[in-house]
Amino acid sequence: MSKYVLAVDQSTSGTKALLFSHEGDLICRCDRPHKQIINDKGWVEHNPMEIYQNTLGVVKDVVEKAGISKEDIAGLGISNQRETAMAWDKQSGNPVFNAIVWQCARGEAICNKIAAEGNADLIKAATGLHISPYFSAAKLSWILQNIPLAAETAAQGNLYCGTMDSWLIYKLTHGKCFKTDYSNASRTQMFNITNLKWDEKVCALFGIKTDMLPQVCDSNSLFGETDFEGYFDKPIPIHSVLGDSHGALFGQGCLERGMIKTTYGTGSSVMMNIGKTPAFSKSGVVTSIAWSMDGQVEYVLEGNINYTGAVMKWIVEDLELIPSAKDASKVAASASKTDETYMVPAFTGLGAPYWDSKAKAIICGMGRNTGKAEIVKAAEECIAYQIADIITVMSRESGIDIKTLRVDGGPTKDAFLMQFQSDILSIPVMVPAIEELSGVGAAYAAGIALNLYDKKTIFDRISKKTFQPVMSAEEKEKRVQGWKKAISLVLDH
After folding, report:
1. Could you read off the pLDDT of 269-281 as tens digits, one per residue?
2. What is the CATH number of domain 4-243?
3. Is 253-493 a CATH 3.40.1190.10 domain?
4. Selection from 416, 412, 467, 463 nearest residue 440 by Cα
């Protein structure tokens, strides 16, 4: 009898259910979006109950669309939006407030106060992360400080705090399991990535008790069983949990030290496997845990960029230079090869490796013949330059000579961008035929744990298109120096 592996990818914009065959092929996908709750301060929230109901609904959707028997599904893997945090009453299972999304910076004052008290270095040494409202700790601290129901529930000893994976596990197991995995724990800014425990000193700085936080488990362990509120006649095991970017790293088969991938989205995440020993960067990238599987922890260096795909959205929707992002590749390719226009998209400051929140976006180096195509070309190229900056830092600080870059996300369909990325890095760029790499990682981790997939061969199922560098060394150096000059103009404020 055929066996299938189910994956739920709970992302920022919606929830996907993915169904994989016993050979590891994606055979069906269904999506349900959820509302983005944004107020006039730019604070971003999600309704946790909507997300849970969508999870139940999208699983039903994919089973019915695929036309398979529920009894043939062997297990479930979960990948999830990272850093998004929420709190709920462990008795009733009801949220005390909406989930605060990773994009939301409402915890900035909390972070500034902790840093002003001289604790930033302690937090970085323990968690590998720069103190920032981006991570979960400040979001949970804000809930405790500003939501009376949260404080009351905490005082009664009934408050659970966690990331979206913990919430889904708790609800899917009817409140029996309160767990997370090492990848998600490492992105909360409360987990000590060296001694592999919730750090009591760091948690205390944010006013969070460690008994409010979930049990941290191997990413391929048994997280409980679920029948999806009675939709399945027999419960199935939840046998993997990974933060979405970690899931993509695993799905790309980056299992060895020095292997690196970039996920292109609204922003971008560059992540490199650095093996079994953490390396702490001094140049703007952070250290996290890739995953722990079968008792073995592996680490990553990671750099996050605020504006990559969002640059093209600005070009399309605000400047109206092209009808859609799909047209960018063709328009950029038609631009003058000698035009020296650069764009630095510091619309909300610069992220890694510069970390300058006061930086302002610029377009520079224009000539009289610079036109629409040249501006679109500069927008495309700034994505690749930003990613190359991070990869250069990672290679230098890890001492690893990077051989290839594996990529995923919607913008990887852009042939101009992928070729320029290869040229500016002088290494091959490999684009997989499948888009849903976060879900692939969760499914493959679960399938391997269930002994359905062979870890040595399963990653070969995904075919890849490879872009090889063709730009001369002299031309590359000229381009890179121009980019560095543009960056210096932005940082000189």
Report:
1. 899 999 999 888 7
2. 3.30.420.40
3. no
4. 463
